[in-house]
Design goal:
four-stranded antiparallel sheet; homodimer; 11 helices; NADH Oxidase; alpha+beta; globular
Chain lengths: ~260, ~260
């Protein structure tokens, strides 16, 4: 049985501590959840969460996003493979694909006999609109006691994802999102120190930034050590990740689907 | 006097109605606020909101974003002009610029003697990471009774914004964000109907989508009529907006700053 929307809230997950209100407590308890119980999510719950999420700001109200819910089990199994053997994509009670959407805009332009001018601005707006919506959706779900997991691995093999889902032009799949009742409570990864993220008026000097990163490396090294990865820290892991270009097909794929990156 | 973090929460803004929990109520009460009282925001409040926002998911924890708070009044006045004479940019008690940030990644790569490979993937990750953070920040602020306004107009004249703020390479300003105590309570713009946004397994046919848009046009026409714009609807306004390309300098600007859009 799905708990009704009214029954639970952020406060049941994280006690309100240190003078923090329930929303801040909800934001601060976020973890990536990859293991879920078998309990299904009711359609009513998902629809309420999506409708709450739609209240996110949107550039000039263009609402340049859409959300595919993948229910078909064959497609889910194939998507799990395409996303890099991420079993939660198949097993999560709900799996969404968050997309930029300029298709509606193209359709109404055609209907009005107008040109539709795609450029980097419209592509960027679609990624921003989609992500403001997606983060609202995550919080709407988490406030109901559910866990979530963004799936950037959706971009590993987009042309195959596209064929599998028979996506039309002008729809840009950005990432997946798993949701369900958590069957794990992983520890939280520490974030960059505030002075490495929030600046007054000017971006800091390289020297100051590297000092902040050095402090964070110590914190992250502790975290990885506790999780059986001694000698690992944020700088080492992150710089290794960016050594070689990844997902090199993205520009060609999105342009093939109607994006203009100029 | 700033209310302390504990004193208020979402529930004081929107009564919990129709079985909706406080988080859903907070999401659903969102409005763009452009008029603010003179009451300042305490640093403690802003820092707590940014720290809560940093808990947003980040692709492989790369945290490819940063947040500039613009305090200098001369810069605020100039930014208001550059954003299209948006006076709230100058007058809001707080004004932030939300940026993609690959500079930290470039710095740690140099420090480790590694290559840093920018491509469309890293640019897209920066826009997604920045926007998940920004939406968390908006909700953290709104939960304290504050109002916010995203400023996409920041992209109108980015090279001048860049010079004004002396931004380094590898930092990509995406949009601004005003915050303060609301001095207005505007009506909410209706959003697209759920069946135009959430789909099961397949993107809908053009015919089905156009039916949904037609229904939405009626709703939006009512909204605009009530606000003194009879004859205006979503399709008309949105298709007019996209007729000609806007902000055509974006690709050149971001590439000049170190982005690779290929």
């Amino acid at each position: 049985m799905q708990p009704p929307l009214a029954a639970i809230d952020a406060t049941h997950q994280s006690p309100v501590e240190n003078g923090m209100n329930a929303t801040h407590a909800l934001l601060r308890q976020h973890r990536t959840i990859r293991k879920f119980t078998d309990q299904a999510l009711e359609d009513e719950c998902i629809e309420a969460a999506v409708q709450s999420a739609q209240h996110a700001a949107s550039s000039s109200n263009v609402q340049a996003y859409c959300c595919l819910r993948i229910r078909d089990s064959r497609r889910r199994a194939k998507l799990a493979e395409l996303c890099g053997e991420q079993t939660q994509v198949e097993r999560a009670p709900a799996f969404f694909i968050i997309c930029g959407d300029q298709r509606r805009h193209r359709l109404i332009a055609e209907q009005c006999g107008r040109n539709y001018a795609a450029n980097l601005e419209t592509f960027l707006v679609s990624s921003v609109d989609a992500s403001l919506f997606a983060q609202n959706l995550v919080l709407a779900l988490e406030s109901l006691g559910l866990g979530t997991c963004y799936i950037g691995g959706l971009r590993n093999r987009l042309p195959e994802v596209d064929t599998l889902l028979d996506l039309p032009t002008d729809v840009f799949p950005f990432y997946g999102l798993c949701a369900g009742h958590p069957a794990e409570q992983p520890s939280q990864r520490p974030r960059l120190p505030l002075p490495a993220v929030l600046f007054d008026d000017c971006y800091p000097s390289d020297e100051d930034m590297l000092k902040q990163i050095a402090a964070y490396d110590q914190i992250s090294a502790e975290y990885y050590k506790e999780r059986g990865q001694p000698g690992f820290n944020w700088s080492g892991g992150t710089s290794a990740k960016f050594r070689k270009p990844t997902r090199v097909h993205l520009a060609e794929y999105y342009q093939h689907k109607g994006a203009n990156l100029l």
